[in-house]
Amino acid sequence: MDNATNNAEIKYAVEAVLFASGEPVSADRLALVLDTDRETILDAGRALAAEYEAGRRGVRLVRLNDSLQLHSAPEYALPITRALEQRRAPKLSQASLEVLAIVAYFQPVTRAYIEQMRGLDSSYTVGVLNERGLIESCGYLETVGRPTLYRTTELFLRTMGVSSLDELPPLPEISGSDAVLKLQARVQELREAEESRAAMENAAAVPTAGDAGAADDGDETA
Question: Could you tell me the pTM of the whole model?
C-alpha cells in the first residue's frame, strides 16, 4: 500500500471513529488504535476539516486542544432543532461568564480565589458550571482545608468556539483596583463568543452545556 493510500485509509478511519464516538477523541488515542503517530492523526483531521468546509457539508470537524470531534455545521442549526424538537440551550448569565473568565485565565483556581476576584459569593455559580460540564475539579490546593481546584473543560472550548485556551482574547497585565474592570472587558468578549456559537451548541450531535438544566440566576443578584 503506497503512502497516499495509507493516509487516505487513516483519514477515513479517523472519520469513522469520530462519527461513532460522538465525543472528543484524543489524537494520542487515535494514533494508538490506528497504529500511527500523533502528527499523522492531526494531519488527517485537518484534511477532513478542509473537505467538509470546501464541500459545504452538513458536518464539521473541530480540534479541542489535542482532541478531535465531529459536530453538525452551525448553519443548519435551525432545521436540526426543528426536526429533533430540541430545546434551545439557555444563555449563560453574567455571573457564569464572570466565573468562567476567571477560571479560564487563572486556572487552576479555588472558589475562594473566584470570590475574591468577583467580590461576591460564587458557590452557586461554580456548582452550576460544574454540573454543566464547563468547569471541573482538578485536584486540591495543598493548604489548610485543601480547597478544590477548578479548571475549564473541552466543553468550555467548544462552547466558546475555540480550539485551545491560547485562542482566548489576550488578558493584559492586571493588578489592584483595575483587575476586575479589565477582566470585565474580557468577560464581554467571551459573552459575544458564546452568543455567536449558540446555534452550534443546539446543532451539536452530543449533549451541550444547556442539557444540565435551566439557566442560572443565583448569585448574580448578591
Answer: 0.53
Nine cell digits for residue 185: 472587558
- Residue-level pLDDT at 117: 84
Domain ranges of the chain: 3-72, 94-208
Q: Cα separation of 52 and 60, whole Å? A: 6
> How far apart are alpha carbons 113 and 111 in whole angstroms?
5
What are the C-alpha distances in Å from 121 to residues 26, 62, 155, 197, 218?
Answer: 36, 35, 24, 28, 10
Q: Which CATH architecture has domain 3-72?
A: Orthogonal Bundle (1.10)
Q: Per-residue pLDDT tens for 146-197?
A: 899 999 988 888 777 777 788 777 766 655 555 556 666 666 666 666 665 5
CATH architecture of 94-208: Orthogonal Bundle (1.10)
Residue 144 CA to its chain's centroid (Å): 32
Lowest mean pLDDT among 78-87, 93-102, 112-121: 78-87
Backbone torsion region of residue 19, taken as left when φ is above 0, otherwise alpha when ψ lies between -120 and 50, otherwise beta: alpha
Q: What is the 3-state secondary structure (H, E, C) of 16-63?
A: HHHHHHCCCEEHHHHHHHCCCCHHHHHHHHHHHHHHHHHCCCCEEEEE
Q: Is the pLDDT of residue 89 over 60?
A: no
Topology agreement, domain 3-72 and domain 94-208: yes
User: Is residue 209 a contact partner of residue 132, using CB atoms and an 8 Å limit?
Assistant: yes
202 residue type, one letter: N
Q: How far apart are CA 141 and CA 108, in angstroms?
A: 9
